[in-house]
Design a protein that fits this description.
- The protein folds into three domains: 319 residues, Up-down Bundle (ABC transporter transmembrane region fold), CATH 1.20.1560; 170 residues, P-loop containing nucleotide triphosphate hydrolases (Rossmann fold, 3-Layer(aba) Sandwich); 59 residues, no CATH class.
- Helix 1 packs across helix 2.
- By secondary structure, it is of the alpha/beta class.
- A hairpin with a 2-residue loop joins strand 9 and strand 10.
- It has 20 helices and ten strands.
- It is elongated, with a radius of gyration of 34 Å.
- The strands form two sheets. It has a six-stranded mixed beta sheet with strand order 6-7-8-3-9-10, with helices on both faces. The chain has a four-stranded antiparallel beta sheet with strand order 2-1-4-5, with helices on one face.
- It binds adenosine-5'-triphosphate.
- Adenosine-5'-triphosphate binds next to helix 12.
- The site of adenosine-5'-triphosphate has 12 residues, from helix 12.
- Keywords: ATP-binding, Membrane, Nucleotide-binding, Transmembrane, Transmembrane helix.
């Protein structure tokens, strides 16, 4: 009940916040429309009485009243719809924005790793679309409440026993709640196959992956898997719907029996001469409305319960999305690095797993240095970078920025001092200038800043080769959108990464994987100049992960990672002379190039 009231209150508060005038208008129109129905029953009873009594004048007056009330009952809800239509749209948008905010607004990304969180998200995405039904139910509910009170008063006036009719509405209500619980459990249980099936659907319909799917000929296999998963989810939901239907039907039968008994009660009074024929008409019409009111109330309550459930899930998700220690983290990062960044006894396992991905990492990254991180696939290089960005906290040990624990730094401030380009970069389907400018929001619209960043990413001429220069719209979602090659997208992502002029940490995780060797070489030359400028200005450290040793060898410091441990640290010459893993990997790559 508390969940329901909280959900209802949140919804009405949201509607009021979004548009108080339209909320008030919708409630007024809905209320007038709802109250007109029981009044119509009373007017019909009155008209019947006058007709039977042969009072023509009063019968005509009653008839006109009946007509006015009938028109009101039938039409006002349509006008109310006009008022709440826009509100529902806005409220749905508001709900979606909250979902995005909870999913994406936290400093850490640990919640994305938890399976139960993913299930909540699957359900929330499905339920968000039902928001309009919930709001409509709530607005209808206000009018319905008044109509129920009016009906109760009118029925009690005929026979107090008729007041038991609304009591008979309790079983359908309880049955409806039980049915909703059964469905909710089934939705949670089937969230995983549904999510996986949706992933497969996106995979098999993605334009980006169409080529690979055709070459590897896995289309049929993926389609079959999608079909099996979808069928599994549907079977689970169907069984729940069957149980829910039986529960609801059982509840309704209880009310139907009470309704018939109520009507028979007044018919008996009329036969005994205690009530007139007008009363019988009133009760027959009104009792039918009680049936309608209860059915509507049950549906409205189900909608409200559903929405309240969605709110509960959202609130719980928001509470579980804590991110790394937001309360403790208050300090600001230093304006410039003097000592550097240290890993002190760092170990790390991803949330929800026990397997350590990093172990006993002790590492000093000197201020102003360019650091290359190398190692085999899965060694832990990207994880190291993610800890530096504060996406996760170490399971043991500390990351220190000029001696201060990263845990104590306010993450938004630390992020503001990081410039980063990731392996999985985003392909924003915006205009070219914006795609790059996003890297430094305050200077996003500055054309010189964007051009400078493109120059650093060795992509100064890229806009000139596009139809509308920096204003060219990118992506296939638009009719006039231009699609870029993988390397061009990567260069724009790199440009975005170097938009910030004075970062303390510049992170590039495999920044050149899609570039040809010539482009890669040119880019690293330019990039090194930028890194040196940043180092002079802020003592900033550049950390890049790369499998290309031609780029790695130029770094001031090379960190070799194997099985989650840092096994070698030094510059190119020292590591080659050391004859360890680095020397081995370097020799292997040099040989394959020869
Ligand atoms: N989100 C995650 N949840 C659980 N385990 C993960 C996650 N991301 C990575 N891992 C695991 O952590 C280990 C290290 O991964 P990481 O991405 O850091 O390797 P890497 O050295 O960057 O590899 P690559 O060169 O292939 O990019 C791998 O065994 C991987 O399976």
């Amino acid at each position: 009940m508390r969940v329901l009231l909280t959900g209802a209150w949140t919804m009405i508060a949201t509607a009021w916040r979004l548009n108080p005038r339209k909320t008030a208008l919708a409630v007024a129109l809905m209320t007038a429309g709802a109250v007109a129905a029981p009044l119509l029953a009373a007017a019909l009873g009155w008209m019947t009485r006058e007709v039977v009594a042969g009072a023509t004048g009063r019968a005509v007056l009653a008839g006109v009243t009946v007509a006015v009330l009938a028109v009101t009952a039938l039409t006002l809800s349509h006008f109310a719809h006009l008022a709440y239509y826009e509100l529902s749209e806005l409220a749905e948008l508001d709900f979606d924005e909250r979902v995005v905010e909870v999913s994406n607004g936290s400093p850490g990304i640990e919640h994305h790793e938890r399976a139960e969180h993913a299930d909540t998200w699957t359900v929330l995405r499905q339920e968000g679309g039902r928001f309009r039904t919930g709001l409509e139910a709530l607005l209808n509910g206000v009018g319905l409440l008044l109509a129920v009170v009016l009906t109760a008063v009118l029925l009690a006036g005929r026979n107090p026993l008729l007041l038991l009719l609304p009591v008979a509405a309790v079983p359908p209500l309880l049955a409806g709640r039980a049915a909703e619980r059964v469905l909710d459990r089934a939705r949670t249980a089937t969230a995983e196959p549904t999510r996986t099936a949706l992933n497969l659907f996106h995979l098999t319909t993605s334009a980006r992956l169409a080529g690979e799917l055709r070459v590897s000929r896995v289309g049929d296999e993926l389609r079959a898997r999608h079909g099996r998963l979808w069928a599994r989810a549907t079977r689970g939901l169907w069984r729940a719907h069957l149980t829910a239907t039986w529960l609801r039907a059982a509840g309704q039968v209880v009310f139907a029996l009470a309704y018939v008994a109520g009507v028979l009660l007044v018919v008996r009074d009329a036969i005994a001469g205690r009530r007139g024929v007008g009363d019988v008409v009133l009760v027959v019409v009104l009792a039918a409305q009680v049936n309608q009111q209860v059915a509507t109330a049950v549906t409205l309550l189900q909608d409200l319960q559903r929405m309240a459930g969605a709110y509960r899930r959202l609130t719980e998700a928001a509470a579980s999305v804590t991110g790394p220690d937001p309360v403790a983290a208050r300090d600001s990062p230093p304006p410039r690095l003097r000592h550097g960044i240290d890993f002190a006894g760092v170990a790390f396992a991803y949330p929800g797993t026990d397997a350590p991905v990093l172990r006993e990492v002790d590492l000093h990254l000197p201020a102003g240095a360019t650091v290359a991180v190398v190692g085999e696939n899965g060694a832990g290089k990207s994880t190291l970078v993610k800890l530096l960005c504060g996406f996760y906290r170490p399971s043991a040990g500390r990351v220190l920025v000029d001696g201060a624990d990263l845990r104590g730094l306010a993450l938004p401030e630390w992020r503001a001092r990081i410039a980063a380009g990731f392996q999985d970069f985003v392909r924003y389907e915006f205009r070219v200038g914006q795609v790059v400018g996003l890297g430094d929001l305050p200077r996003m619209s500055s054309e010189p800043a964007v051009r400078e960043a493109l120059d650093r990413a060795d992509a100064a001429d890229l806009p000139d080769r596009l139809p509308d220069g920096l204003r060219t719209r990118l992506g296939k979602s638009y009719a006039d959108g231009v699609e870029l090659s993988g390397g061009q997208w990567q260069k724009l992502a790199l440009g975005r990464a170097v938009m910030r002029e004075a970062p303390l940490l510049l992170v590039l995780d495999e920044p050149t994987s899609a570039l040809d060797p010539e482009a890669e070489h040119a880019l690293f030359r330019r990039y090194a100049e930028h890194a040196k400028r940043v180092a002079r200005r802020t003592g900033g450290i550049t950390v890049f992960v790369s499998h290309r040793f031609s780029a790695v060898r130029t770094a001031d410091l090379i960190v070799v990672v194997r099985g989650g441990r840092v096994v070698e640290v030094g510059d190119h010459a020292a590591l080659v002379a050391g004859g360890g893993l680095y020397a081995e990997l370097f020799a292997l790559q040099a040989k394959s190039y020869r």
